[in-house]
Amino acid sequence: MPRTEEQYEQIREERKQQIRDVALEIIAEEGFANTSIAKIAKRANISKGLMYNYFTSKEELMMSIMVEGFNKLTEAFDPDRDGVLTHDEMHFFIDTTFDVLKSNIRFWRMYFMVLLQPDVTKLIEPYIMKTLEPFLQTAYQYFASNGYENPDVEVRFFAALLDGVGLHFVMDAEGFPLEGVKEKLHRMLD
Amino acid sequence: MPRTEEQYEQIREERKQQIRDVALEIIAEEGFANTSIAKIAKRANISKGLMYNYFTSKEELMMSIMVEGFNKLTEAFDPDRDGVLTHDEMHFFIDTTFDVLKSNIRFWRMYFMVLLQPDVTKLIEPYIMKTLEPFLQTAYQYFASNGYENPDVEVRFFAALLDGVGLHFVMDAEGFPLEGVKEKLHRMLD
Amino acid sequence: MPRTEEQYEQIREERKQQIRDVALEIIAEEGFANTSIAKIAKRANISKGLMYNYFTSKEELMMSIMVEGFNKLTEAFDPDRDGVLTHDEMHFFIDTTFDVLKSNIRFWRMYFMVLLQPDVTKLIEPYIMKTLEPFLQTAYQYFASNGYENPDVEVRFFAALLDGVGLHFVMDAEGFPLEGVKEKLHRMLD
Amino acid sequence: MPRTEEQYEQIREERKQQIRDVALEIIAEEGFANTSIAKIAKRANISKGLMYNYFTSKEELMMSIMVEGFNKLTEAFDPDRDGVLTHDEMHFFIDTTFDVLKSNIRFWRMYFMVLLQPDVTKLIEPYIMKTLEPFLQTAYQYFASNGYENPDVEVRFFAALLDGVGLHFVMDAEGFPLEGVKEKLHRMLD
DNA sequence: CATGAATGAGTGTTCATTCAT
DNA sequence: GATGAATGAACACTCATTCAT
Asked: Would you call C160 and D161 a contact, using CB atoms and an 8 Å cutoff?
């Protein structure tokens, strides 16, 4: 009995995920520049040729990995997706974001490092911009409706702050006083 | 008759700076990994070989560029170098830092992009750490003597904040509400 | 459907031998230092990259060539490998060695020329020393048990003599009076 | 008062010798392939450009060094240059040759190593052949007039023997039983 | 679907040689 | 005579990608 189309599709998806996982692992260990297709294929126990059956190029593989990470990171923002950010949702977002980061520091350090490389940035910037747009809108509404004088300034300030803190945390998770900093963040929003 | 020693020195210095400038430009555009010596030489209109007359390796070239920028950026911190940060010096530092950034946005965007690439980070991290150490000490004293409860948290929070803001500003100087954000920063320190 | 493992293995072995042959030829003509991977690849009608599919480095290629030749040359020494050299075995060794040399003068001229280049010597000296050690022991026993006064001197003298004769023969096989010289060698051992 | 032409010539010759000495020193230390003109010039305290004032190319410099060594090695053969080798002159030649080798092992090891590299061999072979020819004639006469049956075989045998011994001695001067071997050589000629 | 041999353009680096000064 | 900046071809080696099987 031949497999159904869905079964094939599922097998394909599992393989792709396996390749993504392995690739990310190696990139985290050895850096993007030192991660060759050959290494990924070897560690994933498949042939180089087969790699190209699943991803049309190294670039596409990267895209795929980065998009996956980006989505995980924004999932906690306005979780009910109603376009309105309540006070609770804001605090939830902060906590959850750091929980996500903390759950796999190695992944996220790697993620940020990769993300900040210009060639990678160039690849996924369009996707990020498109996805981020509604979130920035929502954030603006949040600050505006909470009586902040310059919601625009607040959004940018807050985004920069979160990025800076996330970056520092992820770069030096051991030494970073995460709890203290989180507390400061929460208090700033009250 | 050969040139005088000064003439040679001058030629060398000019060429080195020219190479550094071109290199930074390309690295910022295409990333460290994609910046080959060949590309740098071509854009600088010199031969590949000449590069190695001035920098012993690609690494040394990177170091040279990054250290130069890093020093410019920290010059304004505790300018009288007495190890004590007054209130005024703190405000001065913030203003001056952004002035420096603003004075050559293109350079600093490049600088940050380059700095955040893992290969580069690895290269100059030791230098940065060594240089930063006394500054962090000074900052700790500042927060401690100004009655902050957790000076440690404050230092890290402040550093992360400045990095985040600097990064965002430099990545989107046009759209970034710099004056409003600076005001917020100053007010936070009062 | 991919090739079977045996098919791949066969392709690999053939290619490796082909590369070794071509490499030895060029090295003999132009010296180790002047033999580039590019030249080898070109003459072997393969791409540079493929070289590295079969040999991990230029050094490994050299090792591979030299070890192969060295082994062929020592096969005839103490052929029953009992650690004892009879009179007959000694004479057999001399004759066989020159037979081997004579059977492919071109190869052996190349081999000696390559072997005597310092870069190459450095590479395989450890291997040679390790392999030669028991042979020298055996030769010492031979001279000692045949009543020679200074077996140590005899071993070194004989080795030097054989090397010298082999070298001269191989460098000028046409003009070298091999039979006469062999006769002298045999008579010296009686 | 300007220098006379001879004075200039003498200065030139001294410089050239100084360069040869330095070059040989470096080659002996680091091998031929790793000896660059830049290194030689630096160690000789002159500029790269000036090197080319004295030697038209690296090849010519090599030639110059090798010829010098070759001459020193053959000086002791038939010292009165009468084309006839007496018994005493033969023994003198053997002793003197090894004295010369012993006087600067490092030089001669280097010399042989360099000499045996095909590219070098190619360069000075014509010179060597031309110079060696009369010596071989003289040696033939020696063996012929001393009643050897096949003078031709004896010449080649003896030359091969001397080369082999010289090579072994120079490659492992510490371990080589020179005195014992020399004694054997002398006795073979009686 | 799966393999890995094969390619070719690319990498950082070296160095003999030239030449304006 | 003397300098060293400048060149350009060469080097060993890497790797994303293709394709016959």
From this structure: yes
Q: How far apart are CA A13 and CA A30, in angstroms?
A: 26
Q: How close B33 gets to chain A, by Cα (Å)?
A: 6
Segment holding A141, helix H or strand E? helix A118-145
Structural Rg of chain C based on CA atoms? 19
Q: Write down the mean pLDDT value for chain B.
A: 91
CA distance C41 to C34: 14
Check whether B7 has a pLDDT greater than 80.
yes
CA angle at A91 for the pair A90 and A97, rounded to the nearest 5°: 90
- B45/chain A closest Cα distance in angstroms: 24
- CA dist A37 and A53 (Å) reads 13
A59 touches chain B (CB under 8 A): no
Alpha carbon distance D63, D68 (integer Å): 8
Contact between the CB of B1 and strand E at under 7 Å = yes
| Cβ-based contacts (< 7 Å) between C 81-100 and strand E | none
Q: Mean per-residue pLDDT for C68-88?
A: 90
- What Å value separates CA B164 and C1' E18? 52
Measured between its terminal Cα atoms, the distance across chain B in Å is: 65
Q: Output the CA torsion B2→B7→B13→B16 (10° steps).
A: -30
**C29 contacts in chain D (CB < 8 Å):** 118
According to the model, what pLDDT value does residue B1 have? 66
For D51, the token pair is 């090197």
Rounded, the Å distance between the CA of B124 and C1' of F9 is 34
Domain D1-55 has CATH 3.40.50.300: no
Q: How confident is the model at residue D2 (pLDDT cuts 50, 70, 90)?
A: low
- pTM confidence score: 0.85
Please tell me which residue of chain A has the smallest CA distance to B154: A181
Residue for token pair 């210095």: B13
CB D22 within 8 Å of CB D43: yes
Domain ranges of chain D: 1-55, 58-189
**How confident is the model over C144-190, as pLDDT tens digits?**
999 999 999 999 999 999 999 999 999 889 999 999 999 999 999 98
Contact present, C and B (at least 3 Cβ pairs less than 8 Å): no
Cα B74 to Cα B64: distance, rounded to the nearest angstrom:
16
Backbone angles phi, psi at C176, to 5 degrees: -80, 130
What pLDDT was estimated at residue C95?
96
Residue with tokens 């150490």: B133
Average confidence score pLDDT of chain C: 91
Residues of chain B contacting A169 with CB distance shorter than 8 Å: 160
Given a contact cutoff of 8 angstroms between Cβ atoms, the answer to whether A15 and A25 are in contact is no
**pLDDT tens figures, D8-65:** 888 889 999 999 999 988 887 777 778 999 999 999 999 999 999 999 999 899 889 8
A positions 20-39 inside 8 Å of B (CB): 31-33
Distance from C-alpha of D97 to C-alpha of D166, rounded to nearest angstrom: 9
Q: Identity (one letter) of the amino acid at D133? A: E
Closest by alpha carbon to D63, among D5, D135, D127? D127
Give the H/E segment covering residue C8: helix C5-30
Determine, for residues B177 and A150 on separate chains, whether the beta-carbon distance falls below 8 Å: yes
Q: Which nucleotide is nearest to B5 (CA to C1')?
A: F3
CB C53 under 7 Å to nucleic chain E:
yes
Pick C3 or B188 by higher pLDDT: B188
- Is the C-beta atom of B38 closer than 7 angstroms to strand E? yes
Minimal C-alpha gap between A95 and chain B (Å): 16
Q: What is the pLDDT of residues A2-44, one digit of tens each?
A: 567 788 888 888 899 999 999 988 887 777 778 999 999 999 9
Report if CB C10 to strand E is under 7 Å: no
